[in-house]
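To close the chapter, one final illustration. This time we ask the reader to focus less on the individual chains and more on the assembly as a whole: which components sit near each other, and how the overall shape emerges from the parts.
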Amino acid sequence: MRNVAVIGCGYWGPNLVRVFSTLDGCTVRALCDLDPERAASLQRRYPATRTCTDARAVFDDPEIDAVAICTPVHSHYPLARAALETGKHVLLEKPLAHSAAAAEKLVRLAEDRHLTLQVDHTFIYSGAVRKIREIVDGGEIGDILYVDSVRVNLGLFQSDVNVLWDLAPHDVSIITHLVAAEPRWVTAVGSAHYGRVENQAYVTIRFDGSLIAHLHVNWLAPVKIRSTLIGGSKRMIVYDDLEPSEKIRVYEKGVTMHNDPASRARVLVDYRTGDMFAPYIDKTEPLERSCRAFLDAIETGVPSVTDGRAGLAVVRILEAAQESMRADGKRVALAPGS
Amino acid sequence: MRNVAVIGCGYWGPNLVRVFSTLDGCTVRALCDLDPERAASLQRRYPATRTCTDARAVFDDPEIDAVAICTPVHSHYPLARAALETGKHVLLEKPLAHSAAAAEKLVRLAEDRHLTLQVDHTFIYSGAVRKIREIVDGGEIGDILYVDSVRVNLGLFQSDVNVLWDLAPHDVSIITHLVAAEPRWVTAVGSAHYGRVENQAYVTIRFDGSLIAHLHVNWLAPVKIRSTLIGGSKRMIVYDDLEPSEKIRVYEKGVTMHNDPASRARVLVDYRTGDMFAPYIDKTEPLERSCRAFLDAIETGVPSVTDGRAGLAVVRILEAAQESMRADGKRVALAPGS
Amino acid sequence: MRNVAVIGCGYWGPNLVRVFSTLDGCTVRALCDLDPERAASLQRRYPATRTCTDARAVFDDPEIDAVAICTPVHSHYPLARAALETGKHVLLEKPLAHSAAAAEKLVRLAEDRHLTLQVDHTFIYSGAVRKIREIVDGGEIGDILYVDSVRVNLGLFQSDVNVLWDLAPHDVSIITHLVAAEPRWVTAVGSAHYGRVENQAYVTIRFDGSLIAHLHVNWLAPVKIRSTLIGGSKRMIVYDDLEPSEKIRVYEKGVTMHNDPASRARVLVDYRTGDMFAPYIDKTEPLERSCRAFLDAIETGVPSVTDGRAGLAVVRILEAAQESMRADGKRVALAPGS
Amino acid sequence: MRNVAVIGCGYWGPNLVRVFSTLDGCTVRALCDLDPERAASLQRRYPATRTCTDARAVFDDPEIDAVAICTPVHSHYPLARAALETGKHVLLEKPLAHSAAAAEKLVRLAEDRHLTLQVDHTFIYSGAVRKIREIVDGGEIGDILYVDSVRVNLGLFQSDVNVLWDLAPHDVSIITHLVAAEPRWVTAVGSAHYGRVENQAYVTIRFDGSLIAHLHVNWLAPVKIRSTLIGGSKRMIVYDDLEPSEKIRVYEKGVTMHNDPASRARVLVDYRTGDMFAPYIDKTEPLERSCRAFLDAIETGVPSVTDGRAGLAVVRILEAAQESMRADGKRVALAPGS
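The assembled structure is written out below.
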């Protein structure tokens, strides 16, 4: 039985409390928030927990095995470091940290101490993304040629992070989860239409080979779009997260090239078009699977698919995108093997 | 009564023959194509026309007042130049020319000779784009903050031009028609998944101020999308060209900023959300309006909205995008006032 | 301060407990369910309430002012009668009762005792239906010519009521709320594809004049549809309850007739087509408005729009539809003024 | 080589001329229309044809093998009878005739004379309906439990026929093509909102067993809907004719009943939900297949799937629906084996 503390009781924290409360093998012991009223209000629904305003109390409590940190991005690193240093397993809200250097230190620290470090890239645990991964792994779509992701709506303008750090972690985590190739460079452009925080950004990630991944994230769109096109050499996928039931559509469509027998230089294109298939999507709550994976990793010592290294890969791309965006679209290379 | 010749009887030429045949004030006299069978086959439906395989015959015919050129892009410049030099008014299929230098020469030549030079950016004449322009001009959406355009489907892989020169002229012509600001620089990335011709490209155009326009053009997508988001400071527009009737939706949505009275440094954001309005769209065939505009420009000497200068502005952006794409996304500046 | 008891803690009851708990001017005092475990489990979340298994305990408690009854349809009448006889105000889950005779007795009893009797036709309180009513009352759509309602999905096969009594109360309550004319007769056909309980039904309600209302309710459909067309003499409305934001679309479309000047017998038809308008829909939870209306009716003595008489009108139509359905579509008249 | 004449050059006739002109094995010889200008205008595009205003000229011409009749419904019977009596094969625009008696006479006449009689129920030849039939025949959807068809839009108010005879032939022909069971009775209600011709109708067809087919046809709807739900015991189909590519969706959804081991009287319901599958739809023009089928039937003597008997079955249902509609929804029986 693992004792869990949740640090940060604002928007996302209560969801973690709710889910960990229902999972076998763990108990939520402590709720921590700088605002005592916020923790107290949550505590009323979970009378078996106790509250605190200083995370130190959690770290110093030998009874606590693991902490879930749901605080603003800039506090991820100091809180997670302190937690790991006191021997706690750590689950962090996305993104893992505000910089690749900080993320890297957390990864190393967790590895040195043999502790579980996981980032809550919840989409990775959704029925839709798990099904896409299954299709990709099964070879059904062939080679991935491109990924095009759009995540826009009239969203909350954040003051501490721009749209890139707020929305793109979802798409980047999905892309790096699906694509085996190494990212080589990133470009990004963005715009701050109000104030100084970018509310719209376009990010291009160039992988080895001809694979491009591209994102459009936007807090200032009139309609909500959560759509990803995945072009494969054999089939293509449309993933629309707003579809109530048919979130994934697999299209028997594509292009086949062959050499023109009449000319060595020319290539002929054949078009394939066929059936469409929308597989049934498991509806288990992704957050439940994410928390379950965290507990399993603690028990088995085998990292989950959203472990620290996966989280670091996402932060590296976000950081490169941020650098490119600040330089109006300058190409920013990613170190090989990073 | 203007006598018109159509040069190029392949895919688009027959449409021009059909439309000019029905318009008052002009007569289609000649059909020209390198392939005599193609011209002959079209001539059977328009018995009053005559055919030729050499455009010279058209240029040398003093009876011909105007030519419509619907040939591959690389022949636009030599054909249009010859036409202008022999005193013909010229309507060119999009894009105006294969390079900004060529386009510029055509513009200058036409101006020197007081001839009408027009490019057939047909979308500018569609009910939808005309209505958007009317809304923009009326101040209803306030300042344009961004334009995001997606034009993808499983399209024909061309061998002479890439997807940028094939599809992007539509979006770039719409954007430059709607946006009054000057474009400052362009970045683009693309990928050639089969052969050496890019079949997918992303283009960012940065205008003066914080306005970004962004395009996704793609010949290798499982679904057809023709969608443009226009973010304005007062309202926002979604233009979906595939919608049978409600192509334009105007959203009473947006963000209002004001200074936080409690803090000089902070800005407060208010969200507005309200009605949606889909104005009735005139269904006149855009090509008919385009041809009509060409004839009117000839009569009045007043250039149409898709005159040579408008066509040149489009080519400049395409050329810069091409240069950027070849250099993996390098930022390419546009000369001011160009 | 009104003290409320909720009888029936199954599917819908907990929602009423939740809402009444948040409303000013009332307190939830008692939770009653035949299954003591069900009441107890709900009580844990609302520690200030007490539980019982016999509704008698609620009726005999002089402290209780009002009861909300969320039990199977056949128990509505005996429970509501007992509640009214002991001086309680009554809110019933839809439909009001299992027969028009029973519904009529409840209405009379409530009126004799000057007690509030209300049926929880929640849709009437939704932002969408309130907006439609506002449009209808404002004369914007002219005369209502027809209402066509489709409410289908793969729904739970009930064993105590058929699809008519399960789903049609929603549509019939909306229709009678919007249409001022008197219903004259009803026809219905249905089918029980599994067992003996009809899982699909079509109902036609003919009103005075040429107005038809028609319903399709179905538990055995592959897709979920919640759509209502309202044809008006001036404008037409599409109400799609599954649309996340644009639930109502008002179309500037229709037909205008005028006499043919050339022939006294002939009528000429003109078609109008124009803008479409999707008004902003208030998102307040309908159930909150429903409960608020119940409390207001108790305070003021002025019945709400879903009072006993409104509930009776719905039951009369359901009963007639049931009779018609059992007789394979026989026309069943509704008594005038009923 | 069969010589074909087309009688009626209004809305549909030119399509038949176009298609027969391109088919091998036949030649369009004559175009007949009461309005000489209409035939002449069409003749200009088909110079090898000759025109006439009196159908007698066609019937008396021994060179003509077959006639296609595209005239108002009430003239179908006299024209087709005259054609058959002069030994011509006959293809009639839908519906076959204005009454079951007339349709029956035509069927008998054609059979007596060993001539091909076919009705142009074009939808039967569409890729979508052929695919549905294939799925039904393959047993994939199990038993058909219901068919629900909606065909509404702001349509042309006809003066000679009501919406039932104008639109319902499409749906009734599809239903009788797919359903093997015998229709037993029909009910219909309709409304004439302008003038005396019904512009909206609901039709219920009850087949042997628990199968209901239901239609909504409407000329006065704000949006265009062409949608059919087919509930099967194993799978369910949604056929949306307005979908550009995925016209048919086959849902792995349904209900399985089994007896409750705990109680002899009770039946337990299990819900199945699974993948969705949108098969590729052949895009050959349905009219081309319809005309081809007519020519094949002439050559082989084997009637097509839309032969006179199929057309008669449709007219019987339309006539019964008309009778029911005039009697405000009275149930009208269909003679067994009819």
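Chain C has a mean pLDDT of 94. The first strand of chain C starts at residue 2 and ends at 7. With these observations in hand, you are ready for the problems at the end of the chapter.
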